[in-house]
Specification:
globular, mainly beta
């Protein structure tokens, strides 16, 4: 089978193969994503669980978001890289939030919108013409 894109954590213990394009890709500027990425924002690709194959052992950590939603992170126990997030209360949607990274085709993960720009670093300028949301869009 040919895959759209493949990626892995830093140490390579966890890898993924994405079979179809993401449903959506966001750049999140919330303070929590800034902490996660140690950067001005984090890129998240919303993918259907049936469109991705993940291989390797994962650990789990969770927190409650400002909205009241649960946000559970799955990450590599060796290097600590986050691989994806999900809400355990929304398992019926069969979607996960891939913390996308790939050495191959970067265009697959180009953000279609920027969210939580109310917490954006002042020095970062969102590209012109890209939709922005002060918080999480509904």
């Amino acid at each position: 089978m040919s895959y759209l894109v493949e990626g892995a954590c830093q140490c390579g213990q966890v890898s993924y193969k994405l079979n179809k394009p993401p449903i959506a890709v966001f750049a999140c500027h919330c303070i929590e994503c800034q902490k996660l990425s140690t950067a001005p924002f984090s890129v998240t690709a919303i993918v259907r669980t049936e469109d991705i194959d993940i291989d390797g052992e994962l650990k789990e950590w969770g927190r409650l978001a400002e909205s009241g939603n649960k946000n559970v992170a799955k990450f590599c126990p060796d290097c600590g890289n986050r691989v994806y997030h999900y809400n355990p209360d929304e398992l019926s949607t069969l979607k996960l939030k891939l913390k996308a990274s790939s050495e191959e085709d970067h265009s697959v993960f180009e953000p279609q919108a920027h969210v939580w720009v109310s917490e954006k670093q002042d020095w970062y300028q969102v590209p012109e013409g890209v939709p922005t949301y002060d918080k999480q869009p509904s």
